[in-house]
Write a structure and sequence with these properties.
This protein is an alpha/beta fold and 324 residues long. The chain has 7 helices and 17 strands. The longest helix is centred in the last third of the chain and has 21 residues.
């Protein structure tokens, strides 16, 4: 029996773990397992330089930031299991959390901080250069201001509002922004699309898809194909931003928690409580708008505080480990 089980290992999860541990909740964290480009630690594990997280004036790499967050949680006695959670049972209390390999555990409260993963194109060299910091990214707001991308021709793939927002953001730093879209019109809102179409530093390549990222250590260009004729050609770019959406990691929940229209976990306004009392959510699994490390960490703090107060309100002695 656990007071609180935290599922995830990004900024939201480790912040929740620190707060829960300092409140003597003795939290247990399931940090997950590597699966391709999806690593324990979340999307920051594929971010080479983080310059917008407070407290690091010289910047810090994404993996180092996550390692330091984890180390801070461990300092306060947080227990960690390097397993994915494959199922949870939320229909009765205490809740039942089933990991991939070890025995199921019962929990008085649960914090879901499993994040969301960027959708990738699945083309050659894309994931390799994303992992190595070679000029491929799924977050312009996170990476676009880095010196690596400044004054270069940058490509954005996508046709929705996210792609429009990322393209406009990149115009602050890029020499030119090329927007690649496989159709002949955007699906983005008219206002967002019009801003992109009218911007002097944006060029739209209609009916175009990327078929290969070119470059060994860093990106040097793209091989693109015309979706109508099939003709292929190469273009030179200094960066690629994939903006075709994110998928929240909610499949293991089995539909037991309410979702937003976009498929993210639905929480109460101004709170991190989900549709099931005693279950809280934090980070990008709830957020399809900001998707930043600092906002994720803030909601992790909120979720832990709410879990502590919920347990106390329901008469659980949070000063000792559950079951002791």
């Amino acid at each position: 029996m656990e007071n609180v089980v935290i599922i995830g290992s990004g900024p939201a999860a480790w912040t929740a773990a620190v707060y829960a541990a300092r409140a003597n909740l003795h939290p247990l964290v399931f940090e997950g397992e590597p699966a391709g480009i999806v690593l324990p630690g979340g999307q920051l594990m594929t971010t080479t330089e983080v310059e917008n997280y407070p407290g690091f004036p010289e910047g810090i790499t994404g993996p180092e930031l996550m390692e330091r967050m984890k180390a801070q949680a461990l300092r306060f006695g947080v227990r960690v299991k390097a397993e994915d959670v494959k199922a949870v049972a939320l229909g009765a209390h205490p809740f039942r959390v089933t990991p991939n390999y070890s025995a199921p555990v019962e929990a008085l409260s649960v914090i879901v901080a499993t994040g969301a993963y960027a959708r990738w194109l699945g083309i050659p060299n894309e994931e390799r250069l994303a992992q190595s910091g070679g000029g491929v990214s799924a977050c312009a707001v996170c990476d676009g201001a880095l010196p690596f991308y400044r004054n270069k021709v940058l490509a954005v793939v996508g046709g929705g509002d996210t792609a429009m927002e990322e393209s406009m953001y990149l115009t602050k730093f890029a020499q030119q922004v090329l927007v690649l879209h496989r159709r002949d019109s955007f699906r983005a809102s008219k206002v967002m699309a019009q801003r992109v179409l009218e911007h002097p530093r944006v060029k739209v390549l209609w009916n175009t898809r990327a078929v290969e990222v070119l470059g060994d250590d860093v990106i040097r260009g793209l091989r693109i194909a015309d979706t109508v004729t099939g003709a292929e050609r190469e273009i030179e770019v200094g960066g690629l931003f994939v903006a075709i959406g994110h998928t929240p990691n909610t499949g293991f929940l089995g539909g037991q928690l309410a979702l937003t229209d976009a498929g993210y976990l639905k929480v109460q306004p101004g709170r991190m409580a989900t549709s099931v009392p005693g279950v809280f959510a934090a980070g990008d699994v709830t957020d399809d708008y900001y998707r930043q490390a600092i906002t994720a960490a803030g909601t992790g703090c909120m979720a832990a505080l709410e879990a502590e107060r919920w347990l106390a309100h329901h008469g659980h002695d949070v000063g000792v480990p559950a079951g002791s």
